[in-house]
Design a protein that fits this description.
The complex is a heterodimer of chains A (351) and B (607). Helix content of chain A is 72%, strand content 3%. With 351 residues, chain A is mainly alpha-helical. Chain A has one domain (3-338): ABC transporter involved in vitamin B12 uptake, BtuC. In chain A, a hairpin with a 2-residue loop joins strand 1 (186-190) and strand 2. The model of chain A is unreliable at 340-351 (pLDDT under 50). Chain B has helices at 5-27, 30-55, 63-79, 85-107, 114-130, 158-180, 183-189, 195-200, 205-231, 241-254, 260-283, 287-305, 309-321, 398-405, 428-434, 451-456, 467-471, 476-492, 508-521, 538-553, 565-571, 589-594, 596-603, and strands at 142-143, 149-150, 153-154, 233-234, 358-369, 372-383, 387-391, 413-418, 421-422, 436-438, 526-530, 557-561, 574-579, 582-587. In chain B, the strands form four sheets. A six-stranded mixed beta sheet of chain B has the order 10-11-12-7-13-14, with helices on both faces. In chain B, a hairpin with a 2-residue loop joins strand 13 (574-579) and strand 14. The chains are: A mainly alpha (351), B alpha/beta (607). At the A-B interface, helix 8, helix 13, helix 15 and helix 16 of A face helix 5, helix 10 and helix 12 of B.
């Protein structure tokens, strides 16, 4: 391996790491607030990418149908629970929040699905279109069982991934697609070595978004509510934070991150309906390195995963995933060594 | 004791099922027989998951990888090496067991969600490896695997291997059933109570969980071996994470709480899958896509509305209908133990130290939690045959001191000696094995286990039956002795008539007393009790005091942490008073009662 190749691999790794960083942030956010390991995260990203690909070929993305169906289901769930509790006065608001709000990005997307619409608008429409997916799914699937054990939530989350990837296959078909690069040109770093505009964009987005993330968490009431719920659910409730609402906020943030990831990687990787799973899984590896709670450690983990993946693919393209997942072994060993004295009670599984 | 109708029903049900399964190939077509074969193989894997997840509380999303390791192992040995499939069985189980041991050693110390997440990672990696190794045929897999032969008979025909598969399922269920009703089984069933509970009776939660993980993997390995020789062809895709989740789905759908849930679940899932494959093509062109979607939806609905699975649902209905005074934990009801001790040899007792010898001495014990000094430079001794009380106002550091003594927490500095051995750095388990038994302030019982089983868990460190002995019922003499001992301790605390009730059905005060019985089953030299009188009524307190005095007369030493002054003052020989993490004074009850400092600590000083 020459220095040139190493440099190229490192750049690649950083770009990948940027993606895993964003995905990891989303996963940690959802987990810490809701205790749900949000496996369908990658699927949402894939939907954004495939929607963008549909826009570029002048088709209406099938995601619109998915979002609309979910909105109907969520509205029905919400109305049913309101009716059960006899809170009929809140029905108009529920209709607006669960029925009309998700329809907005659908309409925008529908309007953008014609030739001649500027690319930037289509990118924005793709990201917006997937934002309602995670909150709607959460309302229909997770909120009714919010008190279940982490294990049950995890199993449901996995089933949800299979549901979404099945729907993805149904909507988008088995063909992969790749979109136009968002940023052209290249950046000359040193003599004889340049970085593609897309790579620069990916890394820059990761830096900007994570900075934004920290600002939101440190400086805004909503961010503080998220942190409070993550630290202590009951305590947060006692000071007037509604866990269900905070959870929806977390899901919406995660969905937004997933959408951005989707449009960022679509130009550099051919995306299939099920490409999201592996991306999500590698982000998990990063998140596990961060203990599923620490954002900075997750960021470091994401970069490590990206770099390892990039160098591993140089040695063996087929085994790169195996190598990335076996990265977990030293991490887990370290964790188990550190937690040798900790004793937390096992959760009761209601059988 | 009255005969239990549910048990009779269960036996009848088992007999009918076995007969139906035995007759099935005679009356059904070959398609049904191969479906039943698949169900049997699925049931083996799901059985492992019922044990691991349902009973042990650890989840694996990588079980299909173990099926794959075994299938590939036997496939490779019988095709590339041309050896007998029966050698393949040994090789497959060996390889699966070793892999499980390795993976378990690395991951099983992880708590909560880390374990399941890591199982996804290795489950994926192993399946990927199969597709990338030349010797294993890469993505095309290995074909021409020889069929099984039993003497002169070839088991190539689905009808022939059917009996082998279902015999294996039956034997595995029997093994699992026996295992759960035994010494290792009680430890497995207590895993979800936490490592501290197991440590307090001298068991190692990590090792118990590791053993369970290997057992589950071996069941998957057995399934993999059968799979390879039934299909006579292996390729990577049936062993990926998707398949693992399908196995988990079987266990959940059938009911993680019952062994029978494994068979019920495997049948449910595979029949449903089959039905969907028949129906969906009529509805849509894209049947295979819809199948995954329909499956996921059904699964989510199941977890929303029937988390106990089908078997759990049936059992609940049974319980509601019948009197069913004694439902089962985890899987199956314990065989009713004889209320008499007849026929059981007594468990060996420890030799108690002579009255008056020093058995515990704590010197300069200190515990810091960050900046907070919870226990600060405390020293005291306990001699054999006395009852020592540890008292102090709220926040005095009593419970922390207690945790230091029982080695539940490591000391920051200082030392403790128990029976001449330094226990300052010892594990909780080692101390328990030396003869220090404890109860918990926040009761740690297994609510779904009977009183008898809860107490029998206490005898864990005094007995040695292993998993294999238990599963093959070679442990019965020892098991009788354990149950007799447990019954004797229950009798001592006056709960023998409720031996078969669930511990969760007792009021909290009585649960504390039950913990004492479990601690007594450890055969302790020193009994350390954390607020045993809390929640007891006056008469019960008197009975408890009488019991503790009787124990002292038998030579057991008792250290008691208690809030109820009246109770303590009348009971103990000596008191150690703590305040703000430090020892205030030590002395006989009357002296302590008269001491101004103690009065100030409790009531506030007048000045």
């Amino acid at each position: 391996m020459t220095a040139d190749i190493a440099l190229i691999l490192a750049m690649d790794g950083l770009a990948n790491g940027a993606i895993y960083l964003l995905a990891g942030l989303g996963l940690v956010l959802v987990f810490s607030v809701t205790r749900v390991v949000f496996v369908p995260f990658g699927d949402v990203a894939a939907f954004a990418a495939l929607s963008l690909a549909a826009f570029e070929t002048g088709r209406t993305p099938a995601t619109i149908g998915l979002v609309a169906t979910l909105a109907v289901l969520a509205t029905a769930t919400e109305l049913a629970s309101l009716a059960r509790r006899g809170e009929t006065a809140r029905i108009p608001r529920a209709l607006a929040a669960w029925g009309l709000l998700p329809a907005v990005p659908c309409l925008i997307a529908w309007a953008c699905a014609r030739p001649g619409v500027p690319g930037a608008l289509q990118v924005a429409a793709s990201v917006l279109l997937v934002v309602p997916i995670a909150p709607l799914l959460a309302r229909v699937v997770f909120q009714p069982i919010a008190d279940a054990s982490v294990l049950v939530l995890l199993i449901v989350s996995l089933a949800l991934h299979f549901l979404l990837s099945g729907l993805g296959l149904l909507f988008f078909g088995p063909e992969g697609s790749r979109t136009k690069p968002l940023a052209g040109g290249s950046l000359q770093l040193v003599e004889g070595f340049s970085m593609s505009g897309q790579t620069v964009l990916m890394i820059a987005s990761a830096i900007v978004l994570s900075a934004l993330f920290f600002l939101v968490f440190e400086r805004t009431i909503a961010g503080k509510a998220l942190r409070a719920t993550a630290v202590n659910r009951i305590g947060a409730r006692l000071v007037g934070i509604r866990p269900a609402r905070t959870a929806l906020l977390a899901y919406a943030c995660a969905s937004l991150l997933a959408g951005l990831i989707g449009v960022l990687i679509a130009p550099v990787t051919t995306m299939y309906y099920d490409s999201g799973f592996i991306i999500g899984l590698k982000a998990f590896v990063a998140a596990i390195i961060g203990g599923l709670v620490s954002y900075p450690a997750t960021a470091a983990g994401a970069l490590a995963v990206g770099l390892v993946e990039s160098f591993a693919s140089f040695w063996s393209g087929a085994l790169k995933d195996v190598i990335v997942f076996s990265l977990l072994i030293p991490v887990l060993m370290l964790r188990s060594f550190l937690s040798a004295h900790g004793d937390e009670d096992e959760e009761e599984i209601d059988a | 004791m009255s005969p239990r109708p549910p048990a009779r029903h269960r036996i009848a049900l088992i007999v009918v099922s076995v007969a139906a399964l035995a007759a099935a190939p005679l009356f059904t077509g070959s398609f049904t027989v191969s479906l039943l074969n698949d169900i049997g193989i699925g049931a083996l894997v799901a059985l492992g998951l019922v044990l691991l997840t349902g009973v042990g509380g650890a989840t694996s999303f990588g079980q299909a990888a173990f099926v794959g390791i075994a299938a590939y192992a036997t496939a490779w040995l019988t095709t590339a090496q041309g050896l007998s499939p029966w050698l393949g069985l040994g090789f497959a189980l060996l390889l699966t067991g070793l892999s499980a041991l390795l993976i378990g050693l690395l991951t099983l110390r992880l708590g909560g969600h880390f374990l399941p997440l890591s199982t996804i990672a290795w489950g994926l990696s192993i399946a990927l490896l199969f597709g990338n190794v030349d010797a294993l045929g890469r993505h095309t897999g290995l074909s021409n695997i020889p069929p099984l032969r039993l003497g002169p008979w070839s088991l190539a025909d689905p009808r022939a291997i059917y009996y082998l598969i279902w015999a294996m399922v039956g034997l595995a269920c029997l093994f699992a059933h026996n295992l759960l009703q035994s010494r290792p089984g009680r430890a497995i069933r207590s895993l979800r109570g936490g490592a501290t509970l197991l440590g307090s009776v001298g068991a190692d939660a990590y090792r118990v969980r590791l053993t369970l993980f290997v057992i589950a993997a071996l069941l998957a390995g057995l399934a993999g071996w059968l799979y390879a020789h039934k299909n006579r062809f292996v390729s990577p895709s049936p062993f990926d994470v998707r398949a693992s989740i399908e196995y988990l789905l079987m266990a959940v759908a059938g009911g993680l709480g019952q062994l029978a849930g494994a068979i019920v679940g495997a049948a449910l899932v595979l029949l449903l899958k089959n039905g969907l494959q028949d129906v969906l093509p009529l509805l849509s062109q894209r049947a295979t896509q819809l199948e995954a979607v329909a499956f996921a939806i059904l699964f989510i609905l199941l977890l929303h509305f029937a988390r106990g699975g089908l078997a759990g649902f049936v059992v609940r209905k049974f319980r509601e209908r019948g009197s069913a005074s004694r439902p089962s934990d985890g899987a199956v009801p314990a065989s009713t133990p004889p209320p008499t001790v007849a026929g059981a040899t007594a468990l060996p007792r420890r030799e108690l130290p002579a009255r008056g010898t020093r058995i515990l001495s704590v010197s300069h014990a200190t515990k810091r939690f960050g900046g907070l000094v919870a226990v600060n430079d405390v020293s005291f001794d306990v001699d054999a045959g006395e009852i020592v009380g540890l008292i102090g106002p709220n926040g005095a550091g009593k419970t922390t001191m207690f945790n230091l003594l029982t080695c539940t927490l490591p000391m920051t500095s200082g030392s403790a000696t128990f029976l001449g051995r330094d226990i300052g750095r010892a594990t909780q388990r080692a101390v328990a094995r030396l003869g220090l038994a404890r109860t918990f302030q926040h009761v740690k019982l297994r609510p779904q286990m009977s009183l008898l089983d809860n107490v029998a868990l206490g005898a864990h460190a005094r007995t040695r039956a292993g998993v294999l002995q238990a599963g093959l019922r070679l442990d019965r003499a020892e098991e009788r002795a354990i149950l007799a001992e447990a019954w004797r301790q229950l009798d001592r605390i006056g709960l023998a008539d409720r031996a078969d009730d669930l511990a969760g059905s007792l009021p909290l005060g009585t649960q504390r007393i039950l913990e004492i019985a479990r601690a007594l089953a450890v055969d302790p030299v020193l009994l350390v009790l954390d607020e045993p009188a809390a929640g007891l009524r006056r008469r019960e307190k008197q009975a408890l005091a009488a019991l503790l005095r009787r124990l002292r007369d038998e030579g057991v030493t008792i250290l008691i942490v208690e809030h109820d002054m009246d109770f303590v003052m009348k009971l103990v020989d000596r008191l150690v008073v703590m305040n703000f993490g430090q020892k205030l004074l030590e002395g006989v009850p009357s002296a302590v009662r008269a001491d101004e400092r103690v009065q100030a600590a409790y009531l506030g000083s007048v000045t």
